[in-house]
């Protein structure tokens, strides 16, 4: 009997080359792929928005976002993904599909998207300049503050974009969830857009 | 060694004399300085002749000092970077620049085609329309190529552009076009108020006319005020000032287009940098401070090299320290022209005479003339002697009728100023006429936009500063910023008095549109022939249709038309203004989207594994799909595909079908929802079962098909065709949100969540038994045809298994979470090794579906009904669904419709091709007897001949009939037999077995 | 052109797809062929203000009813479709 191994392979596995890319000198952009995460889309059933909000509050201790925002909790991030729907981004199966039965309980429909997206964090002094080549969203700090989110498109590709907490050095972090089959294509566009600023490419196995 | 800069002034100018630059023009080496344009460097080297005109090949020089230049167009750079029609007046000089004049052969000074001038009488307006009408077929073969050779502009590089371009978005409260006094004042006011500001300057230096004309602002010399202002703006974090950036258009909702020439001033862009960047700027408000363009006066010989706009003359002398001429005459109809005299005298140049068309000249200017020792002639220029060596003698007709002659090597002309009304008029705005300046000024503007300073028809330095500042402050206020703007910069206004003069009649060609060689007499001719409307005038004479879009010619053209028709200029009106303001390279619009990155690409989860196997990929929509997997020794694709099909039919194979659209349909009303979007019923589908479904458009035509499985009471897993995945999602959301909002259903795409493989062939179950957990029952009883459920795989992961078949074989589709997709492909190879498993591509998939008579894209053509496809019985009569009523219309249910039928050639050796028309046997093909066409064909390894599907009138009733296939595109004619579309295993025993 | 999505805020045109006139209402199942024919084929060619269906497919996937002047492209109102999100419609 053959031995089957079930390697999990990120869609960026073949193209993500850890290290430097583009212009030399101080890198203006850091691109980090986060590889392991659980992602569940939660959609309120008709007329059940309030019930879902209550259930989410019970589970996560915070209100689920009702407007384009990302809300951090102790062990998950709730990201608005459309009217009356949001993503639960987490790690370690704690809030994976199988664990979310209580949320379902008649108030919501759930869909596992853990393998359907690639998560890329964009940071660095030139992150905004680089993202401006792909995104029509105004990322000025006065408009797109920490916790702001958008269901939008980058380079004609649907993405979920949100601003995470700033890094220790004060630099903004922009998180991009992109459809898995588009990820390699968008990755090349990101590298192209960032090349003139110099890029540090990396990946992290787990969500911070 | 480069020649001496004979016409470089000894001092002054904003050039950097410590940085000499060598460049070549028409193969000859010259030198200039950093800060020169190609035009200013050519002038500094005494070069007057820089090009030949479009139609008559007349010698032309440099007319202006900006982006309105109609004459001095060159091919810049060489090889793949060669760029035709580049304006020497805006091309920045760099070390090693190479440029060549255009539209001449064999050389600029000796141009064979200048004989066109001898035939000038026939090259009048409408010449092409009148001459090359008949015979029609001569146009493409003879006339057009000959005309294109003779009359044309520069040559494109002819090879792919090696440089990169990109596009970017920017957002601001206040966008400012132009960095002259008005633009800078606007930026100061808006920036100080706290607004986010973007200022775009087309030039490589900020300052606008301050760079050429100087002046005093807030008691400071203009240059000092400029550097202080730029420093203040640079210190504001939310103010972005951009040089080399032309705001070229305004679009709906406050979106603007701007082109930044990031590295056009270098021989080639530095590594990782772009040549140009297209900006889409979203601005709450916009201040247009784009200035005004000085306009020529139309007189005979006005295109002689050495005839230059008066303000351009000042720019070359003042900003570039380059003298276009040593002995200059001025022809003006206004006060402003005299500033050129002051600048020239200040630079030590000689003034030959001033020809002023106005009745009076101010005492100050009169005394300037007597001090400078030059005459002031009241009258007009009627002719210029010179030709390719430039201006030599100027003929003047004096007021009162006497004639005079002036000897000069340069003639500066000022006919007044036209505000740059482009941006304000791009939303079909029509500018209004202002008599005091005899020019059109903006009359309203797109929402949020306002013009200030010279662009608004107010030319004085003081009023430019005041208007710009007020406009900047108001724009910031409208955008919600009310910080302290402080006080506006102050300066005096220069006098401006003008007597309109457009055209001086005289002997010889008097040019209105220099670039398109449109003369005053062409306009008069157009009027005589009835082309009086400005839009007709434009198209008949091509006035204003060259790459400069008539910046120096349109108003003069209208004025001449007004004069001959006896109307006023405002009555004559303007043509519609359209963006872009300056030509924009297609490469800049494309940006990153070229070649491999023309569009986003989607890769299947097993893509890299397939690439390792040597798969040949095909683009289907955005996807790259494995088309076939060639093996060593196979001579062509057909051999590979045939092998793959045989391997599946006799053993087992697998294919990545992850490209199918996959949608989770969730919620208590999911079944009821699907009943309304599919023609057949899904609410009664048992959990654990799959069903084939067909969707119609509301007009009764088939939209899409696919298999939908019920995984739980409130969870359906719907699949779509690859091609329609996105559209079906949009359609279902429309049904959910707009048509049937009462249904409690939720939708989301799971296309990317699942890697899905089709496993097919008689040994499918053997393969699956290897990989599926032994506790799972895969027998016909335990997992019947159209079963769908989750199974455990060896090694601990879960998969979804669907017993569905597209190939007609015993088959399953298996789904695993996408990040296992590559492992799945490897494991299927491993599990199938004992059974000779063969990966197959989309071609083999297509062959097997044609053998089975399954419909696909070519049959779902947007014209076929369910009945046409042989699926009419699926239409439920017990419920409403999208398309139900329209599908019942007479024509859609007519008995003579073209329906899907199989075809095979009567000659077994013949190859079929799709697209051939079906004609009754024995008839001559024609539209009257065209009974359908061939939709899909393949070589069927199973039948050992080519087979196909076709849409044929009453096809199903005609099984066995021999008809004629007529393929005029490929020149093929042959007979085919209409047959049952299911060529393989018509009873379906194999897929159920 | 820019459209203010009631859920996402102002977004560029590229994120939206135009469908057409939002006025026609899908007839009831028993309304008959003529009513359906009207619904499918008959459209006013409005030079002026009209109400249109737009899809924010490059964003939140909501269908929107956009009131737009076809002469000036001015958008005077944007509303979500009746069934956008989890809105409860009917009894």
UniProtKB/TrEMBL annotation, chain A:
Gene3D superfamilies: Heterotetrameric sarcosine oxidase, Probable tRNA modification gtpase trme, domain 1
Parts forming coiled coils: none
One Pfam family, short name: SoxG
Highest taxon listed in the record's lineage: Bacteria
Protein name per its UniProtKB record: Sarcosine oxidase subunit gamma
Organism of this sequence: Mesorhizobium jarvisii
Taxonomy of the source species: Bacteria, Pseudomonadati, Pseudomonadota, Alphaproteobacteria, Hyphomicrobiales
Automatic annotation (TrEMBL), chain B:
Domain (Aminomethyltransferase C-terminal): residue spans on this chain: 900-985
Domain spans labelled GCVT N-terminal: 607-879
GO terms (BP aspect): tetrahydrofolate metabolic process
Coiled-coil residue windows: none
Key word DNA-binding present: no
InterPro entries: 2Fe-2S-bd_N, BFD-like_2Fe2S-bd_dom_sf, FAD/NAD-bd_sf, GcvT/YgfZ/DmdA, GcvT/YgfZ_C, GcvT_C, GCVT_N, Sarcosine_oxidase_asu
All copies of domain SoxA A3, residue ranges: 507-591
Keyword set, alphabetical order: Oxidoreductase
GO molecular function: sarcosine oxidase activity
Entries under Pfam families matching the protein: FAD_oxidored (PF12831), Fer2_4 (PF13510), GCV_T (PF01571), GCV_T_C (PF08669), SO_alpha_A3 (PF17806)
NCBIfam families with a match to the protein in the record: soxA
Family per record: Belongs to the GcvT family.
PANTHER family, alphabetized: AMINOMETHYLTRANSFERASE, AMINOMETHYLTRANSFERASE, MITOCHONDRIAL
Protein name: Sarcosine oxidase subunit alpha
Organism: Mesorhizobium jarvisii
Source taxonomy: Bacteria, Pseudomonadati, Pseudomonadota, Alphaproteobacteria, Hyphomicrobiales
Automatic annotation (TrEMBL), chain C:
InterPro entries (UniProt xref): SoxD (IPR006279), SoxD_sf (IPR038561)
Pfam families recorded: SoxD
Origin superkingdom: Bacteria
GO BP field: tetrahydrofolate metabolic process
A molecular function GO annotation: sarcosine oxidase activity
NCBIfam families: soxD
Name of the protein described by the UniProt record: Sarcosine oxidase subunit delta family protein
């Amino acid at each position: 009997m053959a031995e089957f191994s079930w390697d999990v392979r990120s869609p960026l596995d073949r193209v993500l080359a850890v290290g430097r890319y583009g212009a030399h000198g101080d890198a203006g952009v850091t691109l980090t792929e986060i590889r392991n995460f659980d992602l569940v889309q939660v959609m309120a059933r008709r007329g059940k928005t309030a019930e879902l909000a209550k259930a989410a509050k019970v589970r996560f201790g915070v209100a689920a976002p009702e407007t384009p925002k990302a809300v951090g909790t102790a062990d998950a991030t709730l990201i608005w993904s459309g009217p009356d729907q949001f993503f639960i981004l987490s790690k370690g199966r704690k809030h994976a599909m199988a664990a979310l039965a209580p949320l379902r309980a008649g108030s919501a429909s759930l869909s596992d998207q853990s393998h359907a997206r690639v998560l890329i964090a964009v940071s660095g002094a030139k992150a905004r300049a680089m993202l401006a080549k792909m995104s029509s969203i105004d990322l000025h700090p006065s408009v797109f503050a920490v916790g702001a989110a958008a269901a939008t498109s980058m380079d004609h590709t649907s993405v979920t974009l949100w601003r995470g907490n700033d890094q220790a050095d004060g630099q903004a972090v922009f998180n991009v969830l992109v459809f898995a089959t588009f990820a390699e294509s968008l990755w090349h566009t990101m590298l192209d857009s960032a090349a003139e600023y110099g890029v540090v490419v990396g990946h992290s196995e787990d969500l911070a | 060694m480069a020649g001496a800069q004979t016409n470089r002034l000894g001092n002054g100018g904003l050039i950097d004399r410590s940085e000499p630059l060598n460049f070549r023009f028409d193969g000859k080496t010259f030198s200039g300085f950093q800060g020169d344009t190609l035009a200013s460097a050519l002038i500094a080297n005494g070069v007057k002749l820089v090009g030949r005109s479009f139609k008559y090949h007349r010698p032309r020089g440099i007319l202006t000092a900006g982006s309105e230049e109609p004459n001095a167009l060159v091919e810049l750079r060489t090889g793949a970077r060669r760029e035709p029609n580049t304006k020497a007046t805006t091309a920045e000089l760099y070390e090693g620049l190479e440029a060549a004049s255009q539209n001449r052969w064999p050389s600029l000074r000796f141009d064979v085609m200048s004989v066109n001038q001898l035939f000038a009488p026939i090259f009048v307006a409408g010449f092409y329309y009148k001459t090359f009408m008949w015979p029609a077929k001569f146009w493409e073969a003879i006339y057009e190529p000959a005309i294109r050779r003779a009359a044309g502009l520069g040559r494109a590089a002819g090879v792919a552009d090696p440089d990169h371009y990109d596009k970017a978005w920017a957002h601001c409260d206040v966008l400012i076009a132009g960095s002259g006094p008005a633009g800078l004042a606007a930026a100061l006011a808006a920036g100080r108020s706290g607004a986010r500001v973007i200022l775009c300057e087309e030039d490589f230096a900020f300052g606008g006319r301050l760079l050429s004309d100087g002046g005093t602002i807030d008691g400071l010399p203009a240059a000092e005020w400029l550097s202080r202002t730029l420093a203040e703006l640079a210190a504001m974090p939310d103010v972005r000032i951009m040089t080399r950036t032309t705001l070229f258009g305004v679009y709906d909702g406050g979106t603007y287009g701007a082109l930044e020439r990031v590295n056009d001033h270098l021989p080639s862009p530095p590594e990782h940098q772009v040549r140009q960047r297209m900006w889409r700027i979203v601005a709450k408000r916009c201040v247009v401070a784009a200035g005004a363009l000085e306009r020529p006066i139309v007189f005979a010989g006005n295109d002689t090299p050495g005839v230059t706009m008066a303000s351009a003359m000042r720019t070359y002398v003042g900003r570039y320290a380059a003298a276009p001429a040593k002995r200059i005459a001025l022809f003006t109809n206004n006060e402003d022209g005299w500033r050129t005299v002051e600048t020239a005298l200040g630079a030590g140049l000689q003034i030959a005479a001033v020809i002023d068309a106005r009745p009076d000249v101010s005492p100050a200017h009169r005394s300037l003339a007597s001090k400078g020792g030059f005459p002031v002639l009241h009258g007009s220029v009627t002719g210029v002697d010179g030709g390719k060596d430039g201006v030599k003698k100027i003929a003047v007709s004096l007021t009162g009728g006497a004639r005079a002659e002036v000897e000069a090597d340069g003639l500066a002309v000022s006919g007044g100023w036209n505000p740059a009304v482009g941006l304000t008029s791009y939303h079909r705005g029509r500018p209004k006429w202002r008599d005091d300046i005899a020019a059109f000024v903006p009359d309203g503007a797109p929402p949020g936009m306002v013009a200030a300073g010279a662009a608004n028809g107010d030319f004085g330095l003081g009023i430019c500063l005041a208007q710009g500042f007020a406009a900047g402050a108001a724009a910031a206020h409208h955008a919600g910023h009310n910080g302290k703007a402080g006080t506006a910069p102050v300066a005096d206004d220069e006098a401006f008095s003008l007597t309109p003069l457009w055209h001086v009649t005289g002997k010889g060609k008097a040019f209105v549109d220099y670039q398109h060689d449109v003369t005053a007499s062409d306009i008069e001719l157009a009027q005589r022939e009835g082309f009086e409307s400005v839009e007709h005038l434009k198209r008949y004479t091509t006035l204003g249709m060259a790459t400069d879009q008539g910046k120096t010619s349109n108003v003069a053209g209208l004025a001449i038309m007004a004069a001959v028709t006896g109307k006023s200029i405002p009555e004559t009106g303007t043509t519609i203004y359209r963006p872009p303001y300056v030509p924009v390279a297609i490469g800049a619009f494309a940006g990153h989207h070229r070649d491999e990155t023309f569009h986003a690409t989607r890769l299947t989860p097993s893509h890299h594994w397939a690439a390792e196997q040597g798969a040949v990929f095909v683009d289907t929509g955005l996807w790259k799909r494995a088309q076939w997997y060639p093996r060593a020794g196979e001579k062509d694709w057909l051999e590979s595909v045939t092998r793959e099909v045989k391997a599946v039919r006799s053993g087992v194979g697998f294919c990545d079908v992850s490209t199918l659209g996959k949608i989770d349909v969730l919620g208590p009303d999911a079944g009821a929802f699907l009943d309304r979007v599919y023609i057949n019923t899904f609410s009664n589908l048992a959990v654990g079962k799959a069903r084939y479904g067909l969707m119609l458009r509301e007009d009764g035509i088939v939209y899409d098909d696919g298999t939908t499985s019920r995984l739980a009471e409130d969870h359906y897993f719907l699949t779509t065709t690859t091609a329609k995945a996105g559209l079906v999602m949009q359609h279902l959301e429309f049904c959910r949100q707009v048509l049937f909002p009462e249904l409690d259903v939720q939708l989301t795409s799971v296309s990317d969540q699942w890697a899905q493989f089709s496993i097919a062939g008689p040994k499918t179950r053997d393969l699956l038994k290897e990989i599926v957990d032994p506790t799972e029952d895969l027998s016909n009883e335990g997992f019947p045809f159209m079963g769908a459920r989750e199974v455990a795989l060896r090694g601990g992961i879960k998969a979804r298994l669907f017993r569905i078949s597209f190939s007609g074989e015993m088959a399953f589709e298996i789904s695993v979470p996408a990040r296992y997709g590559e492992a799945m492909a490897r494991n299927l190879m491993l599990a199938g090794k004992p059974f000779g498993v063969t990966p197959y591509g989309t071609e083999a998939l297509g062959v097997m579906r044609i053998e089975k008579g399954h419909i696909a894209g070519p049959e779902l053509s947007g014209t076929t009904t369910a009945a046409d496809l042989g699926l009419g019985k699926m239409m439920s009569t017990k419920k409403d669904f999208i398309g139900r009523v329209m599908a019942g219309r007479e024509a859609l249910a007519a008995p003579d419709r073209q329906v899907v039928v199989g075809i095979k050639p009567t000659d077994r050796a013949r190859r079929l091709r799709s697209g051939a028309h079906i004609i009754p046997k024995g008839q001559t093909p024609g539209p009257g007897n065209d009974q359908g066409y061939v939709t899909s064909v393949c070589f069927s390894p199973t039948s050992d001949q080519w087979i196909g599907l076709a849409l044929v009138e009453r096809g199903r009733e005609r099984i066995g009939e021999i008809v004629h296939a007529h393929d005029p595109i490929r020149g093929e004619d042959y007979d085919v037999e209409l047959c049952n579309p299911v060529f393989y295993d018509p009873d379906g025993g194999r897929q159920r077995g | 052109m820019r459209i203010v999505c009631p859920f996402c805020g102002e977004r560029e045109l590229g994120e939206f797809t135009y469908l057409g006139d939002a006025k026609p209402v899908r007839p009831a199942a028993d309304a008959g062929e003529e009513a359906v024919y009207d619904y499918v084929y008959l459209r006013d060619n409005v030079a002026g203000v009209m109400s249109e269906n737009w899809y924010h497919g490059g964003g939140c996937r909501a269908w929107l009813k956009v009131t737009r002047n076809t002469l000036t492209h001015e958008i005077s109102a944007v509303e979500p479709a009746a069934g956008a999100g989890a809105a409860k419609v009917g009894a």
